[in-house]
Write a structure and sequence with these properties.
single chain, alpha/beta, 8-stranded parallel beta sheet, two-stranded antiparallel sheet, 10 strands, binds zinc ion
Amino acid sequence: MLLFGTAGVPNSSKRRDTISGIIRVKELNLDCMEIEFVRGVRMREELAKKVRETANENEIALSVHAPYFINLNAREEKKIEYSKKRIIDSARIGHLCGARNIVFHAAYYMGDDPKDVYKKVKKAIEEILSVINFDVVLRPETTGNWKEFGTLEEVISLSQELENVLPCIDFAHIHARTHKYNTYEEFTKILERIEEELGKEAIKDMHIHVSGIEYEEYGEKKHLNLRESDMNYKDLIKALKDFGASGLLISESPNLEEDAVLLRDLYRKL
Ligand SMILES: [Zn+2]
């Protein structure tokens, strides 16, 4: 079964804090929420524990999106260290919140050979994993732009090679980056690939981002609401259901909960 939720506090939440967001997610009959640490990990441990209690009481699953300002292929060693720290902090506070999936955009190519970037990213994630002694899954995301590390192949390979690493599959990003992957057959192809390379367990433990998307030749321009985009979300939901995908599906559309509800209802009607 798939759980449906929002990237951050729903727009219709009266207050903007994480706890109010969880309560609003529950009122909307949604199942999960991604905590957005995208501008930095500023949540204190005390609050994280309260977030965990609120999520437990309301049976809302949580995940975390690490800060955007991460580049494991940065030129300066110091910037790589800061990037690693941001992922570790996201994981630590996320874990206190009861989140298991820690999503991040791993790196930029910076004009380097993607194979070299892969090696650097892998090494950095290994170092991150070596200091994480609690139960989280690191989720490098499929990114929406040619300049960004994060093809489907790259995130699958990292997941094969490293323990406690699984992909975050952002279907809008894959579509924006390739201008393909927008039909039932193509969505199924992605799922088959994941199953072949990572096993049925990975299909039963997915982390998915969906939104409409505007894109240019090189990829993503901005996120759109599903109905205002060319994203073939109906076939995507059908492919996920037919394939038996389970896990968290997070709406990253500007209207957040409206598209989360739209997708949830489509899924339930199938
Ligand atoms: Zn992301």
